């Protein structure tokens, strides 16, 4: 019984043998580093401009932006933490047995 490599592995290795010399040659050129740097800068500038434009557009329509929503979520989280803290303080000061449970729903019939 022979153990040969799976078909997918043979395909990957064949592609690697063909592409590796080309990719190694290209990756060692300074022009590639410059092109990648310019690409990153351009992408970042486009993202900033798009965010700024969409933020202005949404504010013109009186709609919240992502930063507005994130700020509100932070405020809500702080309020929830404060309510939880106050709830713990109230529970510490109340007697053990209380009638604070909601009444059972009435059955209509």
UniProtKB/TrEMBL annotation:
This is Uncharacterized protein.
């Amino acid at each position: 019984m022979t153990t040969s490599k799976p078909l997918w592995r043979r395909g990957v290795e064949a592609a690697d043998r063909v592409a590796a010399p080309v990719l190694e040659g290209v990756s060692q050129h300074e022009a590639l580093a410059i092109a990648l740097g310019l690409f990153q800068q351009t992408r970042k500038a486009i993202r900033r401009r798009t965010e700024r434009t969409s933020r202005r557009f949404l504010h013109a329509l009186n709609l919240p932006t992502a930063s507005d929503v994130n700020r509100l979520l932070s405020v809500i989280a702080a309020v929830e933490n404060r309510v939880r803290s106050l709830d713990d303080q109230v529970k510490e000061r109340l007697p053990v047995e209380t009638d604070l449970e909601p009444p059972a729903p009435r059955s209509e019939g």
